[in-house]
Amino acid sequence: MKPLIAISVNYQEDDVVSRATGFGAPAQTFDYVAIDYSRAIERNGGIPFWIPTMLEHENVAVLLDQCDGVLLSGGHDVDPLRYGEFNKYSGLISPKRDEQDLFIAKYAMEKGMNLLGVCRGSQIINVACGGTLYQDVEKGGFRRHSDSSYPRNYGWHHVVFEKGSLLAEIIGKEEVMINSYHHQAVKDPGQGIKVIAKAPDDGTIEGFQIEGKSKFALGVQWHPEMMYDNEDMKKIFKAFVDACR
User: Fold this and answer.
1) What is the CATH number of the domain that holds 42?
2) N or C terminus: which one in the chain shows less Cβ crowding within 10 Å?
3) Catalytic residue among 67, 119, 129, 244
């Protein structure tokens, strides 16, 4: 049987979606997520399932209990208040999404579910474990890690994996090229977070595994789901889906 994998979604606090697309009603809010996440799961043998923004966490838990794994997707910046800081450099924040995603991350880890966090998703996991973030990596002294001049599936900077780490084992290499679409990143790793991947030129944390939580518990700062034609990135999703079987 194919594993059912839950995917978190963006919650838009205003009606920007209806205004941009021309459908819906004024002041109507939307849940949405890039289709790349679902395609990456489906192409590698899983069944994607989007979790809508719920009114009650108990209802989220009911859905999670039916799933074999959780993918926390990218999106809005995480509110610095969630890790004890005032907002100085963050962009658009969705408090409702923060609340639900943090619940999903904590619930998944408590239950030992297979878990993959991508970009914001990895940041959410770190915050859920008590870690902190750079609100803006450039303000933290790192180089710019977002460049829309490249196609989304094109790797344009290096990442180095720790020898013997989960990522090194999955991909079979200790260095690959990745894309990058973020201005925030892990600063202080939370409890149980083991850093296993960094950008070699400036030391930005690009990946971690969560020790003692489940068979597969991984966070990556880049967007492997966008690199749909890259064999190295496919291996991440295949390993995730296989662990969820």
Assistant:
1) 3.40.50.880
2) N
3) 119
